[in-house]
Amino acid sequence: MSLHVYNTLTRQKEEFVPLKNDKEVGMYTCGPTVYNYAHIGNIRSYVFADLLRRVLEYNGFEVKHVMNITDVGHLLSDADEGEDKMIKRAKETGQSPWEIAKQITDVFFKDFERLNLLKPKIVCRATEHIQEMIDFVKVLLEKGYAYEISDGIYFDISKLADYGKLSRINLEEQMAGARVDVNPEKRHPADFALWKRAEPNHIMQWESPWGMGYPGWHIECSAMSIKYLGQEFELHTGGIDHIPIHHENEIAQNTGYTDKEVVRYWMHGEFLQVDGGKMSKSLGNVWTISDIAQRGYNPLAYRYMCLNAHYRKTMNFTWNGLESANTALTRLWINVEKFRESTNHLANMSQLDHYQKRFEEAIDDDLNVPEALGILWEMVRNSEVVSKEGYDLILEMDRVFGLNLDQEIEKQQELSVDLMQLIEERKEARVNKDWARSDALRDELKAKGVLVKDTKEGQVWEVVTPEQ
Ligand code: AMP
Ligand code: ZN
Asked: What pLDDT does 457 receive?
């Protein structure tokens, strides 16, 4: 079977066929808005994009992966109304929007490293592409897809026969039911801002043919994706919340600008929930990767958790769930280590070939990574295939899982003699039921980057990166 992916536009799994040649494919991922630290829900959507890229690479494609950083901030609601998010945070913290953006972007990429997410080949900041956006808007105006009113330039959705095709919304019904304060100068309530005129006290603003102002949110992704990937490219990813407005509007802009269907496959990741509900500040459950690391978990346990949920299914995060994922990951290391140490060569490859075939079928079936992970588990539990060849296959599979198995296992093995001594002492303390000493040793080990857990089978431990 060849690679098939689910295309939101057609609501179908389709065969993935590159547009230009057999090898090179373009992929654009909507990046973070850097006014607030990314939470584990945001990160889930980047794990999905990372898995997509890895599956494409496993299939022999070279992926030109582009991701934007929204550092101009966008308006509080998707409907162009409200206060700019970056500026709101700037007021709250007393920092400049540029300082906030830099600090948050740095932590964002630190999360990428901790989760072994491949960094996109091109990371483009909105603030560095204002001219491209202005040029884009100029073309839309010239071609009659946009119009000017007192507070800026707007896209005229009535110029497109099929506006709304991605989300399949019935615009008239939606608008009739909505009680939003619509700018009365707009020709249609769903027309959206391409460029906004700035008040004099607006911090981030740029010169344009329409006076000082700043871009609407959607224009940056159209301008930058086309700049780096051309007028027709293969894949565009984001979270499902982007379907009805952001991506709908990107399609409108792209069509107006190029008269082409710019993106071939639109792919969207489902949301993450926490404790079965929405994450929210008021519930105090907006967790980050730093929270996970601070509680002593290996951030890769969160990656492991994401691998276990198909990207088109809602995933539920609980701390107990993370604990289980952490234990499962440690057990996986223990099993894989047997392969890593093995000097055995397999005379008959048929079992391994079968595992590989099933693994490839799973990932090629719209990224069925949970199934692929199940196949890895089946394989590592089969003592008949413990061998060098088996280890090679595990590393092949790990190109997709991205658990960094080889290096993580090595890290576990590199424990110094001193630390091994402490681990042994704790084992003895537990045998002697000296709980106070056992707890003190656990804390000491944790401070030194070794996480000890007590399981039914006894004490297990792993090396984690101590949180700075
Ligand atoms: P933002 O920084 O708000 O633009 O969001 C960055 C990415 O995270 C986007 O692709 C969103 O669709 C995605 N996202 C936001 N909330 C969640 C969530 N709870 N679960 C999964 N993805 C999310
Ligand atoms: Zn975008």
From this structure: 67
What residues are in contact with ligand 1 under a 6 Å CB criterion? 30, 32-33, 41-42, 44-45, 238-239, 241-242, 269, 271-272, 279
Instruction: In whole angstroms, give the CA distance from residue 245 to residue 310.
Output: 24
The pLDDT of residue 93: 82
With respect to residue 468, please indicate whether it lies within any of the assigned structural domains: no
Helices assigned H by DSSP within 312-434: 319-341, 350-364, 369-380, 388-401, 405-413, 417-431
What tens digit of pLDDT does each residue of 66-105 get?
999 999 865 544 555 566 676 777 778 888 888 889 999 9
Residue 143 within a domain: yes
First-last CA distance in the chain: 46
Is 261 inside a domain boundary?
yes
Here the CATH number for the domain that contains residue 366 is 1.20.120
Atom of ligand 1 nearest to the CA of 241: 12
Q: How far is the CA of 218 from the centre of ligand 2 (A)?
A: 6
Asked if residue 312 lies in contact with residue 319, where contact means CB atoms within 8 angstroms, the answer is no
What distance in angstroms lies between residue 211's CA and the mean position of ligand 1's atoms?
32
Tokens 């009805």 correspond to 244
Distance of CA 270 from the midpoint of ligand 1 (Å): 9
pLDDT over 60 at 468, yes or no: no
Q: In the prediction, which pLDDT does 65 show? A: 98
At 134-149, the pLDDT tens digits run 999 999 999 999 999 9
Task: Give the ligand 1 atom nearest the CA of 29.
Answer: 10
Phi/psi at 356 (nearest 5 deg)? -65, -40
Distance CA(154)–CA(140), nearest Å, equals: 10
Give me ligand 1 centre to Cα 40, in Å.
9
In which domain, by residue range, is 445 found? Answer: 417-463
For ligand 2, the distance from its centroid to the CA atom of residue 239, given in whole angstroms, is: 10
> Could you say which ligand is closest to the alpha carbon of residue 40?
1
Say yes or no: 436 and 404 in one domain: no
Number of independent structural domains in the chain:
3
Ligand nearest to the CA of 285: 1
pLDDT of residue 467: 53
